[in-house]
Amino acid sequence: KNFQTITSIDGSATDGSANTIIDCPEPWIPYGGVRISGNGNTFQGFKVVDNTISAVAGHDHPHYLIKVEGDNNSVFNNTLVGRGTGFNSDRGILVQGETFSSGGGDGLSFFTNIKRNEIYGSCYGIDIADDEPARIQDDAGIQCNYIHDNCKAISVRIDCDLISPLGETVLRPLRYNHIANSQFGGLQVEYRG
């Protein structure tokens, strides 16, 4: 669906009031706990929790609490709780364009807004463009998030061959984020190509 707003009753899971909780027993690839695959959608005000029994042998596939695949989507005022930092591929929020093979997309996720979320207990708090290019709107982007107790807070992967012709820079919209207690780094930027 496109242009949908999905919001909790008060629109915030970061203000100390009671929360609407999405309890994800198995938020695994390819969809994640919450999957936003349309365009122009807003997901706001929920607490999303990965409650997988982590000690199960062989349970090492990646978990995504929120996966954003479409264009012009917004993720606001959510609290995301991962299953712990010992799982190297888990993400709080993964922004990755939907591919032709997985659903007919163009492989790009344009103009994603990620604001005022609290994210903890994952390997990557926010991961942009894992294996595929993504572009973030200059006046929006990743702002005012509290990202703590993860292995890496924000990871941005840029494919220079695909991003450079667009004339965009992914780093400009990173503003006013509070990063604390990251085990291996607050911001990781990797250029490919």
The coarse silhouette is globular
Order of secondary-structure elements: EEEEEEEEEHEEEEEEEEHEE
Low-confidence stretches: 162-167
Query: What is the structural class?
Result: mainly beta
Give me the side-by-side strand order of the main sheet. Answer: 2-5-8-12-16-18
Mean pLDDT: 78
Helix-residue proportion: under 10%
Strand content: 35-45%
Largest sheet: 6 strands, parallel
Rg measurement, Å: 15 Å
How many helix segments?
2
Distance between the termini: 34 Å
The counted number of beta strands is: 19
Descriptive tags:
193 residues; mainly beta; 2 helices; 4% helix
Describe this structure in words.
With 193 residues, the protein is mostly beta strands. It has helices at 100-103, 160-163, and strands at residues 5-7, 20-24, 34-36, 42-44, 46-50, 64-68, 74-76, 79-81, 91-95, 109-110, 113-115, 118-120, 124-128, 134-135, 141-143, 146-148, 152-159, 178-180, 185-192. It has a six-stranded parallel β-sheet, with no helix packed on it. Strands 3-6-9-13-17-19 form a six-stranded parallel β-sheet. A five-stranded parallel β-sheet has the order 1-4-7-11-15, with no helix packed on it. The radius of gyration is 15 Å and the shape is globular. The model is unreliable at 162-167 (pLDDT under 50).
Give a topology summary.
Layout lengths: L4 E3 L12 E5 L9 E3 L5 E3 L1 E5 L13 E5 L5 E3 L2 E3 L9 E5 L4 H4 L5 E2 L2 E3 L2 E3 L3 E5 L5 E2 L5 E3 L2 E3 L3 E8 H4 L14 E3 L4 E8 L1
Parallel strand pairs: 1-4, 2-5, 3-6, 4-7, 5-8, 6-9, 7-11, 8-12, 9-13, 10-14, 11-15, 12-16, 13-17, 16-18, 17-19
